[in-house]
Amino acid sequence: MTTATLARRHAIAGATVIAITLGSVGWKRLATDGAERPSAELCRQLVDRYLEYTFLEREGQPSLPALTAALEHARSREEHGLDAADCQRRLARPQVECGLAASGLDELERCLP
Questions:
Q1: Fewer CB atoms inside 10 A, N or C side of the chain?
Q2: d(CA 55, CA 19)
Q3: Do 28 and 72 belong to one domain?
């Protein structure tokens, strides 16, 4: 096989990978844009769930009072409201419902774009 043939095959393979990636991203975007948006309450719940899983992953198995205090502190911060508003803008209701049904941080993050 000549160098030119190998170069052509590599170029075609690279272009195919790029096309598949862009198509997948575009399809996800179209599916999200056309889907029903989540309510403010669902987004607040998702942000809380994310904070809870993040805290549990970082701290292990803290006491319930420690977890409650950490969540209350996080809810009082401006970022909590901004994250919930961003959720309503960027996510589709099925993505939020997937995140709320997740049993851990990794599973929750797989629901998000």
A1: N
A2: 38
A3: no
State the pLDDT at residue 24.
47
What is the Cα 6 distance to its own chain's centre? 39
| 113 in Cβ contact with 95 (< 8 Å) | yes
Q: Are 8 and 58 in contact (CB under 8 A)?
A: no
Tens of pLDDT, residues 13-31: 444 556 565 554 444 554 4
Cα distance between residue 113 and residue 111, in whole Å? 7
Q: Which residue has the higher pLDDT, 3 or 113?
A: 113
Angle between helices 64-75 and 40-59 (to 10 degrees): 130
Instruction: Judge if 27 and 70 occupy the same domain.
Output: no
Q: Against a cut of 0.85, is the pTM above it? A: no
- What is the domain count for the chain? 2
Q: Is-contact 112 86, C-beta < 8 A?
A: no
What tokens appear for 48 in the block?
A: 């809380």
Distance of alpha carbon 32 from alpha carbon 20, whole angstroms: 18
> In angstroms, rounded to a whole number, what is the distance separating the alpha carbons of residues 42 and 59?
25
Instruction: Say which amino acid occupies 3.
Output: T
